[in-house]
Amino acid sequence: MQPVNKSNKLSNVCYDIRGPVLQRARQMEEDGQRIIKLNIGNPMPFGFNAPEEIVQDVIHNMDQASGYTDSKGLFAARKAIMHYTQQKNIEGVTIDDIIIGNGVSELIVMAMQGLLNNGDQVLIPMPDYPLWTAAVNLAGGSARHYICDEKSGWLPDLKDIENKITANTKGIVIINPNNPTGALYPQEILEGIIEIARHHGLVIFADEIYDKVLYDGNTHTSIASLADDVLFVTFNGLSKNYRACGYRSGWMIISGDKKPAKDYIEGLNMLASMRLCANVPGQLAIQTALGGYQSINDLVAPSGRLCKQRDLAYDMLTALPGVSCVKPQAAMYLFPRLDPKIYPIQDDQQFILDLLLEEKVLLVQGTGFNWPSPDHFRVVFLPNVDDLTEAMTRIGRYLDGYRKKHAK
């Protein structure tokens, strides 16, 4: 039998968050070693459970979950999402403008498959959540990465966005609040992106999955609330705000200037129909989640567990020689920088692997988020204070040994 090879479509597809270093960590766990995992933003294993009222509502309604729903999703769930768009001041959204999916991940792939022809380009932030780049490449498109400037708090560089637009550019992706940096974009940046999209006729894709995970009294502005003459596709879901990653319940909202996008919207509806519907138990959680008590507010308050863990991880990391970090305003991550003069890293994946082998702490290297230089890594600060303290201590010990080994 001839070798069975993967499709050429996968040649430029990469997702290092679950890449080879994670595979090595799993082997170590099978050998009985305990790994402190700071690689994936999955709240439940760290004791952040979905709110009990959501769990009970799903259980209570499970007898309704055995049949297909409308391909766009349950009416009651979409109506709750529509009401949420009104709270976010996004105008003109009807129930038919909402598609529920098996998490935002499925919908990102769907949105790119429905839009892109071979050779089309999409502007994606750098660093990014790598699924966006993978989805563009899988759809036959090309990701062009625009700079988010660490010196300005990881805000998008509007001039760089403008400079990277070509005749083949179809859309701009923003991740706000941002993964992996924890940045939160102010209104003037959002308005600048809208103006660029307006001038060049581009679709704005807004990943807002962390829009309630906000610290220090910050508030989130949905970019789709700022204009009605640009086409917006906004993504959100239950995974992060409601600690319900495994429910795989996300949604995509189409708003703004929808008339020129009639054909694209028909394509999205076709793709939604092809997968029949999103999983129904997850859909049953949406109405209760959006309309119930927002327990995330307790977790991100100054006395809340998430806020305390953010502060602990930030303080311990930035106390290390040659380590700097923009303090995250949102989300569940830090994206610290290692001074290349002190840490002359050539291969950051090998650097992260060596850290795993020596200290049994699992991170993801910066290049896994399409950052071009091997001088960053992402830290998930979800573990409890004791485990997080131990992880930061181990990272510090590893970096101390690395500095001494490479001292000139």
From TrEMBL:
Keywords of this entry: Aminotransferase, Pyridoxal phosphate, Transferase
Domain of life of the source: Bacteria
Record-linked InterPro entries: Ala_Aminotransferase, Aminotransferase_I/II_large, PyrdxlP-dep_Trfase, PyrdxlP-dep_Trfase_major, PyrdxlP-dep_Trfase_small
Keyword Zinc included in the entry's annotation: no
TM segment ranges: none
Cofactor: pyridoxal 5'-phosphate
Residue stretches making up the Aminotransferase class I/classII large domain: 35-395
Enzyme class: transferase
One Gene Ontology MF term: transaminase activity
EC number: 2.6.1.2
Stored Pfam families: Aminotran_1_2 (PF00155)
Family per similarity comment: Belongs to the class-I pyridoxal-phosphate-dependent aminotransferase family.
Protein name per the record: alanine transaminase
Organism, scientific name: Methylophilus flavus
